[in-house]
Design brief:
The complex is a heterodimer of chains A (234) and B (237). Chain A has helices spanning 2-16, 20-53, 59-69, 74-85, 100-136, 141-151, 153-168, 172-178, 188-198, 201-226. Helix content of chain A is 77%, strand content 0%. In chain A, helix 1 (2-16) packs across helix 10, helix 2 runs parallel beside helix 5 and helix 2 (20-53) crosses helix 7 (153-168). Chain A has ten helices and no strands. By secondary structure, chain A is mainly α. Chain B is 38% helix and 24% strand. Chain B has helices at residues 45-53, 69-73, 90-101, 105-118, 134-146, 164-179, 191-197, 215-220, 225-232, and strands spanning 7-16, 19-29, 34-38, 60-64, 76-79, 152-156, 183-187, 200-205, 208-214. In chain B, the strands form two sheets. In chain B, strands 5-6-7-3-8-9 form a six-stranded mixed beta sheet, sandwiched between helices. In chain B, helix 6 links the parallel strand 6 (152-156) and strand 7. Chain B is globular. The chains are: A mainly alpha (234), B alpha/beta (237).
C-alpha cells in the first residue's frame, strides 16, 4: 500500500516540476500513438464502412479474419515487424529499426483491425436503418458512404478512441521494434517496464499514473471537441 | 416539367424463395388523382407500392413509365410506414434531398423554410429529428418527400399509429399536394381515410387486384363479396 502512496507522491512531484525526461517520453508516447491512430483511422474507417454496405464474394471471410485480427498478440506483431525491418530483412536498407517510425508501423498493424471491426459493426446498424430511404432517394454509392460516415461520426469516434486506448497502453510490440532507447525510442509504457525491472516501483507507478491521466485527458479532449454526450445529442 | 405518367403494370409477379407475394397484377396509373390501395395484412400492398416505386425486384412482367426508368426515378418520392429519420437536425433532414440533387444553396434555403412552415416544424429546426414525436416525424418525412417536388408520391400507411389530430395534419398536407398536381398512391388500413381521400381505389387480396375502380362506385357499390365483407369489417383470410 505504501508503494502506491509513494508512487502517487512521486507522480505528483514529477508532474509539478515538469520533469524534462518525463515530458519527453510522454510527448513521444503521444506522438507515436496519435500518428498511428491517424494512419490507422484513414485506412480503417472507410474500409469498415465499405464492408458494411457492399456485398462481395469473400465478405464474410474478410469480416471473420478482421475480427480475429483484433486479438493479434502485439509481441508477435513486434517480432514480425522486427524481422522485416532488421538489417537482413527485406526492408533493412531503410534503416527504420529502433526508430519511432518502426513503432508507428507496428502500432498501425495492431490497431487498424480493431478500428475497422468496430466501424463495421456500427455502420452495419446505421446502414440497416438508412437502407430503404437511401435507395428510395436514388443515391449514388459515394453519396451513401458520405451520408453514413457523417451521420455515424460519433460511432466512428468511439472506434478511433478504442484504437487510441489499445495503442497508448501497448508495450510488447514497441519494446521489440523500438528497443526502449533513452532519448530516442523510450515511451511511457517501455519506461514503466524498465523501472519495474530495476525495482524502482515508485518511479514506475508514477509513470503509470501519468500514463492513465494522459489517456483520460486525450479522451475528454476529443469528446469535448467533437461535442458528443451533450444533452440531447446522443 | 416532363411527365412520367402514366405508369403501366403488365402481368407483374413478385416471388421470393419460391413464394408468390403478388401477381399477376396489371393496372394503370393515370395522370391525376389519389389512388388508395386497400387490403388485409399480407395481401401485398407494400410490395405493390415498392414495385411501382422501382425498389422491388420483379420476377416477371413489366413496369413501364412514360419515360425511361432512370429518369422516372428522379420524379418520385416514397414515405415509409415507420418514418426513417436521418440522425441530423430537422432542417438538415429537409435539406438532404436537395443536397443530393445539387440544388443551389439559395434555393435550398428558400424551399427548406417554406416546407418547415408547411409541416409546422419551423420552431423545431435545430432539434434532432430522432427526438421528434411520432406525428412530427411523419410530417417531417412527408415534407422531406415533397420538397423534391415529385410528380408521384407513394405512401405506405403514413397514418398507422397516429392519432386523429396527426392524421388530419397529414391528410391536409396530402390534399394540398394533390391540389398542386402531385399524383398520390397510398396504402391504408383505415377505410374512413380511404373514403375521405381517394379518387380511385384498388382492393388487393392474396396478391391480386380483386377489385378496383373510381371511388364513388368502389365504396358505395362494391361488386365482389370479399370487398363487401371487408367494408363490413369482417375478417378476410
Amino acid at each position: 500500500m505504501s508503494d502506491i502512496v509513494e508512487g502517487l507522491t512521486a507522480a505528483f512531484w514529477l508532474v509539478i516540476s515538469l520533469d524534462p525526461e518525463l515530458l519527453e517520453i510522454s510527448l513521444r508516447s503521444l506522438q507515436v500513438t496519435l500518428t498511428s491512430l491517424v494512419i490507422a483511422s484513414a485506412i480503417a474507417l472507410p474500409f469498415g464502412t465499405f464492408l458494411a454496405i457492399r456485398r462481395f464474394r469473400y465478405r464474410r471471410l474478410t469480416i471473420s479474419v478482421l475480427n480475429a485480427l483484433m486479438g493479434l498478440p502485439p509481441v508477435v506483431v513486434g517480432l514480425i515487424v522486427y524481422i522485416l525491418l532488421s538489417r537482413s530483412g527485406p526492408f533493412g536498407v531503410l534503416g527504420l529499426l529502433f526508430t519511432p517510425t518502426a513503432m508507428v508501423i507496428a502500432q498501425v498493424i495492431i490497431i487498424t483491425p480493431l478500428i475497422a471491426s468496430i466501424t463495421h459493426q456500427a455502420m452495419r446498424e446505421l446502414w440497416a436503418e438508412y437502407h430503404d430511404l437511401l435507395i428510395s432517394l436514388n443515391t449514388s454509392q459515394w453519396q451513401r458512404i458520405k451520408t453514413l460516415i457523417w451521420d455515424g461520426r460519433r460511432n466512428l469516434l468511439t472506434a478511433s478512441l478504442a484504437g487510441f486506448g489499445r495503442g497508448i497502453g501497448e508495450v510488447g510490440a514497441i519494446m521489440i521494434v523500438g528497443g526502449n532507447i533513452d532519448n530516442a525510442t523510450r515511451v511511457l509504457t517501455t519506461a514503466i517496464a524498465l523501472e519495474t525491472g530495476k525495482g524502482d516501483f515508485a518511479l514506475a507507478l508514477a509513470l503509470g499514473f501519468v500514463l492513465i491521466a494522459l489517456a483520460i485527458s486525450v479522451n475528454i479532449a476529443i469528446h469535448s471537441l467533437s461535442r458528443t454526450e451533450r444533452e440531447g445529442r446522443w | 416539367m416532363t411527365n412520367i405518367l402514366p405508369l403501366n403494370l403488365k402481368d407483374v409477379m413478385v416471388k421470393r424463395r419460391g413464394k408468390r407475394l403478388i401477381g399477376p397484377v396489371s393496372t394503370k396509373l393515370g395522370n391525376t388523382g389519389i389512388t388508395m390501395i386497400l387490403g388485409p395484412n399480407g395481401s401485398g400492398k407494400t410490395t405493390l407500392l415498392k414495385v411501382m416505386h422501382g425498389v422491388e425486384r420483379v420476377s416477371a412482367g413489366q413496369v413501364q413509365w412514360a419515360v425511361p426508368d432512370h429518369e422516372a426515378q428522379h420524379h418520385q418520392s416514397y414515405v415509409f410506414q415507420s418514418p426513417i429519420m436521418l440522425r441530423r437536425s430537422v432542417i438538415d433532414n429537409l435539406r438532404y434531398p436537395l443536397q443530393l440533387h445539387g440544388t443551389p444553396k439559395a434555393e435550398q434555403e428558400a424551399r427548406v423554410s417554406e416546407w418547415a412552415r408547411k409541416i409546422g416544424l419551423e420552431d423545431h429546426l435545430s432539434v434532432q429529428a430522432t427526438r421528434l414525436s411520432g406525428g412530427e416525424k411523419q410530417r417531417l418525412a412527408l415534407g422531406r418527400a415533397l420538397i423534391r417536388r415529385p410528380e408521384v408520391l407513394f405512401l405506405d400507411e403514413p397514418c398507422a399509429n397516429l392519432d386523429g389530430a396527426s392524421t388530419r395534419d397529414i391528410e391536409t398536407l396530402l390534399l394540398e399536394a394533390h391540389a398542386a398536381g402531385t399524383r398520390i398512391v397510398m396504402t391504408t388500413h383505415n377505410i374512413g381515410q380511404a373514403k375521405r381521400l381517394a379518387t380511385d381505389a384498388i382492393f388487393l387480396l392474396h396478391g391480386e387486384i380483386w377489385e378496383s375502380g373510381p371511388s364513388a362506385r368502389f365504396f358505395d357499390a362494391p361488386e365482389t363479396p370479399e370487398l363487401q365483407a371487408f367494408f363490413r369489417g369482417d375478417i378476410i383470410a
